[in-house]
């Protein structure tokens, strides 16, 4: 499964990069395949392990912010691995054709 999610602290002002970095650090330390871009962090693994990482990423932001927003999108395909890479490679292959 691939989960794309964003964690946003609310009530802390406009500069939220420090809080987002705390959440991304949790994801990177998980050891699961992941990517971060300007809008979302994507993580790949089994349901329980991915959702645990998302829960911990929210919790680390929640420790310092009075309110937290979570946006989550999941691609649930049992048996598929390396989707973070293969899905992008497929699009790039079509673009270069």
TrEMBL record:
Highest taxon above the source species: Bacteria
Domain Thiamine-binding protein: 3-92
InterPro entries attached to this UniProt entry: MTH1187/YkoF-like (IPR029756), Thiamine_BP (IPR002767), UPF0045_domain (IPR051614)
Coiled-coil portions: none
Pfam family, one: Thiamine_BP
NCBIfam families: MTH1187 family thiamine-binding protein
Family of the protein in this entry: Belongs to the UPF0045 family.
Name used for this protein in its record: MTH1187 family thiamine-binding protein
Record organism: Streptomyces phaeochromogenes
């Amino acid at each position: 499964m691939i989960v794309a999610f964003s964690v946003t602290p609310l009530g802390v002002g406009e500069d939220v990069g420090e809080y987002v970095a705390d959440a991304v650090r949790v994801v990177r330390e998980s050891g699961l395949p992941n990517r971060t871009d300007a809008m979302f962090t994507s993580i790949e693994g089994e349901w329980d392990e991915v959702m645990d990482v998302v829960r911990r990423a929210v919790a680390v932001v929640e420790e310092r912010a009075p309110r937290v927003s979570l946006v989550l999108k999941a691609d649930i395909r049992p048996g598929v691995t390396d989707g973070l890479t293969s899905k992008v490679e497929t699009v790039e292959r079509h673009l270069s054709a």
